Amino acid sequence: MLPKNFKPIANYALVRLGKDYDGGYLINKESIEKTKLLLSFGICDDFSFEDDFKKHNNCPIIAFDPTSTNKFFLKKIIFNFLKCEFINFLDAISNFYNFKKFFNKKENLFVQKKIGIGGSLNYETITFDEILLLSKVNSNFFLKIDIEGSEYRILDDLVKNSKLIVGIAIEFHDVDLHLEKISNFIEEIDLDLVHIHANNYSKPDKQGIPTAIELTFARNPIKIGNNLNLPHKLDQKNDPNSKNIDLFFTEN
Prior knowledge:
Low-confidence stretches: none
Helix content: 25-40%
Largest sheet: 7 strands, mixed
Order of helices and strands: EEEHEHEHHEEEHEHEHEEE
Radius of gyration: 18 Å
Number of helices: 7
Number of strands: 13
Distance between the termini: 11 Å
Mean pLDDT: 94
Number of domains: 1
Strand order of the largest sheet: 6-5-4-9-10-12-11
Oligomer: single chain
CATH class: Alpha Beta
CATH architecture: 3-Layer(aba) Sandwich
Strand content: 15-25%
CATH topology: Rossmann fold
C-alpha cells in the first residue's frame, strides 16, 4: 500500500495533455492558464504533451533531453526502412520533421543536456539553477519531468524553488525503493497533489506497490468535489495491452 499522502484529498478540474496511452498526463486546468513558461525534462521522440500544452497556452517552452539527437531519429528511420515497416518508416520521418519544426519556433528551445548534478560520463549536464538563468522568466513555471530516475536528483531544487512553480507533472521510478523520499517531497513541496496514476509498463513489487507512478501538483487548485475516484475518467493505461494497476493507500 502507498502512504496516505500519496492520495489527493479531493477532486480537481483536470485535463489530459499528450498522446493516448504512454506520454499523456492529467494536469490541473488552472495550472495551464497561470503558466508563463513550460519546462519539459525528458522528451525522447515524443513532444505530444508540449504540443497540446501549446494549444491551450501559447507560452514559451524549453525542453531538455540529451538523447534526442539527429542520430537517434535517423537510426529509427533506417531501422524501420530495413525492417520494411513502411508505415512506421513514414511515421518516423514525419515525427523527425515535426520535432524539428516545433523546436525551431523562436519561442521554443530544445537543449541536448541531461538534468542533473555535476558531470556525466555520457552526457553534458545542466543544473536546475542554470535552467532558471536560461529561462529568463522569474515565476509561474510548469514542469513536466520524466527523466528515468534522475528526478530524485532535483527534488530539493523543486522544493527550494516551489514558490516559482504553478504546477508539476512528474514520473517517479523505482517507487518501492524511494517511498520515503517521495512522501517527504509531497509534504515539503509548496503545491497540492491533485492526481496520481500508476504506469503499468512497470509492474508492482511483491507487496503490490507500483514501481512507477505519475504525480501531478498544482498551486492553490480549486476543489470540485470531495469524493475522489481513481482511476480518473480521463486516465489511460500507459501500456494498452496490460491490465491497470489498482492503487491502495494506508489509513494513517
